[in-house]
């Protein structure tokens, strides 16, 4: 009997989820079409340089999804589903602290971690969990009601979880079981036709639209499914030309003449989707909810901790400039700050240990018997090795919160006089019984492996520094 490997399960799940979401949110199909057109145009214009951060086949197939769950139990179950696909929780994001408005969730992202697995299919899912115990958002009575509501629902059927555990353990599934797993997994993330309790949803919506989307319904669903584009500014322009209402800004670093770093994101605005609503007298009426939107992303180079500290410092400088110059466009101010303070080339980023690269012996390296230098920068400069940037595979909490906020109808309510509930990666790891991995450690390990290979190939006594 033939079997389906984890990466093929992952690719099939991403493709089926994309087809399902296109049926539910037709504007998503437009987003995918425009992304493909932009990528083809960029490839024609830039040639091989357009694939500096990933082959066009990878970029075209790339998707990230976003879902929201309510409890550690639900997060643990979704971790089992994604483990079946070779996806691990990476990074901890506290969106409560990334926005002044009411976004009462903490998040992680499930994704492949091995370089070869990422190259085969880099599907990732940004997964947020509600924090009912945070008194800044939920008073004691509302917390009790919310936790009781969440405890009574079932997001993932036992059959799906059993198949997921088998796929995770065996790293494959027989073809028939694989088909059943994929059917159940896609169904788990479809928008449910079950009527929504109107009064309960509105109670939570007064606190936060995100809280209502998580805790006001008896199922979960894909909030957005994100294609990757090589020129996000051009995509924004073309989507607007087609009459698609986009959010006001592109989140993340500005467009500038230097290398792309980290992640830039934007989206079309959340759509008013028809939903059945159950009123207090038990009748069902037609209504509309705005919870799902179409996000798109452009990925850049992964930054080291030092590089990320510089990025965060520049964000602070931009905020100061915006406060001093309210009539100036933020994008223009940000570009000026970047051009003054951000290194303008990959070589400068590498020399300053601000970004991650993989290194390989240069096929045309010197062969005259001269000893190679022992410093990474000199090896690159003298043509002994090549440096290829590592793609940033993760997320930015401030950008994620900005996307959430720009797609919600109101700011909600938040009482900052109340104490917050402490969460970090360790607490989340314990809650879901899966280690939440440190993304910096993953990038550094990949870079160090390449430097160890360079040392062996060049006969160096130790990896270059």
Structure described in brief:
With about 475 residues, the protein is an alpha+beta fold. Helix content is about 45%, strand content about 15%. It has helices spanning about 5-25, 25-45, 55-60, 70-85, 95-100, 115-120, 140-150, 160-170, 175-190, 200-205, 210-215, 230-240, 305-325, 330-340, 345-350, 375-380, 395-405, 425-430, 440-460; strands at about 5, 65-70, 90-95, 105-110, 125-130, 170-175, 195, 225, 265-270, 270-280, 285-290, 295-300, 355-360, 385-390.
Describe the protein in words.
This protein has 19 helices and 14 strands. The chain is of the alpha+beta class. α1 (6-24) runs parallel beside α9 (175-188).
Helix-strand layout with pairing:
Layout: E1 3-5, H1 6-24, H2 26-46, H3 56-61, E2 63-69, H4 72-83, E3 88-94, H5 95-98, E4 105-111, H6 115-120, E5 124-130, H7 140-151, H8 158-170, E6 172-174, H9 175-188, E7 196-197, H10 198-207, H11 209-215, E8 224-227, H12 232-241, E9 263-268, E10 272-278, E11 284-290, E12 294-299, H13 305-324, H14 330-341, H15 346-351, E13 357-361, H16 376-381, E14 385-389, H17 397-406, H18 425-432, H19 439-458
Parallel strand pairs: 2-5, 7-10
Antiparallel strand pairs: 1-6, 2-8, 3-4, 4-5, 9-12, 10-11, 13-14
